[in-house]
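Notebook entry, cofactor series.
This is the third protein in the set we're modelling with a bound small molecule. For this one the ligand is zinc ion. I'm keeping the input format identical across the series so the outputs can be compared line by line later. Sequence and SMILES below, as received.
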Amino acid sequence: MKVYISVDMEGCAGIVHVDQTRRTGHDYATARLWMTGEASAAVAGAYDAGATRVLVNDSHGDMRNLVLEEMDRRIEVLSGDLKPRSMVQGIEEKWDVALFVGYHAGAGSRAGILDHTYYGRVVSDVRVGGKRYNETALNALVCGTDGTPVGLVTGDETTCAQAREVLPDVETVAVKSAVTRYAARSLHPEEARKRIREGAARACKKAASLTPLRPKPPLRLEVDLLATAMADACELVPSTERVSGYGVRYEAPDAETLLKVLQAWTVLAASTIPA
Ligand SMILES: [Zn+2]
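Returned structure with ligand:
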């Protein structure tokens, strides 16, 4: 069984603030070990359930967070930016199941630790086919197009609830419960790892019965930016429709194109932020 694991950081136990999730933050060195611990727990669960190959994609920030010497030597790791499929780079090979670890709630969520969607400094809301899509949903869409179902999502309780809305048969492991954007009641990191390992094993065991997320194309992508100048910049991407002061729209023929357009928009939008 081939298992694909995408690991973000904001949804790991104990993490509540950007001072932990940014490379320059005071608490980053500890937080990256918590992230590595949760990634390793998912890897262990996959092997418990009979995985023969595991690819781990470092999916947070500059995507160079995982401390490799702490991880199982059998895995392969995808590190670094830029990756055309971003948080699900490598999914285009055939995998039996994808596991999302350390994920967070989408932009605009209440009680979601560090809620954002792809790039919080420019994106206020993302919708696909008129429905709000967070990173779990967007990445599941790309996985689904390539025929891979998402079997596990871990993060705070809001993240897990949002995952179950879009992926009815997904396993979830909530490692913390957000009080506000910057406060949560969290499990101890070791308890979080134990539950993630068990959740990963459950997800892998039922991989064959899971349904990939695969809505019919074209996929209508709509994004609200945080400033009009950002939306102006997004219009540089050909076939982008400007629908309002803050809003842009794109009819994507497939999920891969949708994700590329979203990334191109965010890069262009970020270029308008004064230095
Ligand atoms: Zn992240």
